[in-house]
Amino acid sequence: MIAKKRIVLFTGVSTGFGLLGLLLVGTLSWPLVRGVPGILIGIVGATLCAAILKFIFHESPSVTAAGLGAVLASYIALATAEVVPAGSLEWALKGGLFGAAIGVSLAMLLSVLKIFLVGFLQLETAGANVVER
Questions:
Q1: Residue range 23-79, pLDDT digits in tens
Q2: Are 58 and 15 in contact (CB under 8 A)?
Q3: Number of neighbouring beta carbons within 10 Å of residue 20
Q4: Closest CA to 7 of 58, 41, 79
Q5: Which residues are within 8 A (CB) of 42 and not within 5 positions of it... i.e. 6 or more apart?
Q6: Best CA proximity match to 98, nearest among 14, 19, 11, 8
Q7: C-alpha separations of 88 from 54, 77, 94 in Å
Q8: How far is it between the farthest Cα atoms of the chain?
Q9: How far lies 95's CA from each of 41, 87, 124, in Å?
């Protein structure tokens, strides 16, 4: 059970680090993160963080869930530039908070669904291997 909680936590952390990478690059140079390149920075950051966590702790966070959460978090963070000055510290704080609130929540929810689905499929295959007497 603890391993499953770590998987969910590591997935959320990976999404957060992907968003953090986007915010750091966007604060330093806004033209680098406008549009699709900004979302790609978030995805790459989340994927790299998930790979590093897997290597260190030997438990696999859901890379797909972290990537999807990073897409949504990055998009929301970039969209807040319509309301606040783009590339500013205010954008990084407000965009980061809005993006993290929704993107990390989505990533953790998807990883929980993945854990239940994998557990269900393992029960199905275990039941198929039982020979009736």
A1: 999 999 999 999 999 999 999 999 999 999 989 988 788 899 999 999 999 999 999
A2: no
A3: 19
A4: 58
A5: 18, 19, 21, 22, 70, 71, 73, 74, 77
A6: 19
A7: 33, 12, 10
A8: 72
A9: 15, 10, 43
Which pair of structure tokens corresponds to residue 80?
Answer: 């807040």
Residue 104 burial by CB count (10 A; 0-12/13-18/19+): exposed, middle or buried? buried
Dig out the tokens for 67 from the structure: 């990537």
Q: Residue 19 corresponds to which amino acid?
A: L
Take residue 27 and report the two structure tokens written for it: 């604060």
CA 133 distance to own-chain centroid: 47
Question: Which pLDDT band holds residue 12 (cuts at 50, 70, 90)?
Answer: very high
Which of 74, 26, 86, 81 has the alpha carbon at shortest distance from 47? 74
Determine the 3-state secondary structure of 71 from DSSP: helix
Structure tokens at 21: 């990478």
Tokens of 5: 């909680």
Tokens standing for 79?
Answer: 């969209």
